[in-house]
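Could you join me in thinking about how sequence relates to backbone shape in a protein? Would you write everything just below, so we can both look at the same thing?
***
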Amino acid sequence: MKATCLNFNKPIKDAISRIRFAPASNNLLISSWDSSLRLYDVDKCELRLETPAEGAALLDCCFESESVALSANSDGSILRYDMHLGSSEAIGNHDDLATCVEYCEETGQVITAGWDKKVKFWDARCGSPFGCLSNVDVEVESVSISGLNLMVALRSSVHMYDLRYGLVQAKELSMDINIKCVRSNLDLEGFVVGSTDGRVALEYLGKSNSKNEGYAFRCHPKDKNGRHHLVAVNDIAFHPFLCGVLVTGDNEGHATIWDVLNRKRLLELPRYPNSIASLAYNHEGQLLAVASSYTYQEASEREEQPQIFMHHIDDRQIKSASASSSKRK
């Protein structure tokens, strides 16, 4: 599966924190530590927007709509961008680093979290706050939304909130795992987490049975001596249409596509020059974007120029690999 590298006339100057595809187009949103938010038109191979650098590092980003984006920043601010006008405004703040931002289309809420041990809720229509969870006890590194379910990763547990009613359940993972990222999926009726030691755990919501019991696996290659590297799984992205198909990316530049329903590795992508900071499928599942960038996690990280690689996904190849793995079970 060949990849093309996105071309920027002015290179991204610092680590990439997050990439996200737009809800209904192939526009890619990019946040980075160089304080700029970028919007790249993948179809036309051109940069449509680069906001002025204003000091704070951008630690996360997301789309509210095709023309509106949000960012969570190292100074605690939450910014809202009008990408038609190229303007931005602050809608609120955290008392420490703001590490996560998500938008719930069903409720019109912006959800943010940070190192101040708070999860905050904002009305996207007027930018005003209307709720705050201040009892999470630890710094929040990762959150995820699917439908009306909000997942908040807190060290070795995941708390699930119904955005209409509040806390539904707290799911403590059965193994000793330090969570790096959490990603939820409505079709799967569950969620996955990536750990700091190279494991991925799949957990289902509701009551388990023999057909949908969660499990964990290691997701990057063994070394020459047959031992697993203890490398963080930085990001996980679900394919938008193939249920149970996801891609993982780790801090040593390995990306792998998995069928977690059939417990099978489908495809291992060529190793990238840097750590994998973020992954994103487009809305049709035909494109996979991979952000190759140092992440400031390890002293030994390579500090190559941050790059974004674009893979054209052949669904037939993925489906064929998945069907073959099912027959071999």
Notes: The first strand starts at residue 3 and ends at 5. The two ends are 25 Å apart (CA to CA). The first helix runs from residue 315 to 328. The helical segments are 315-328.
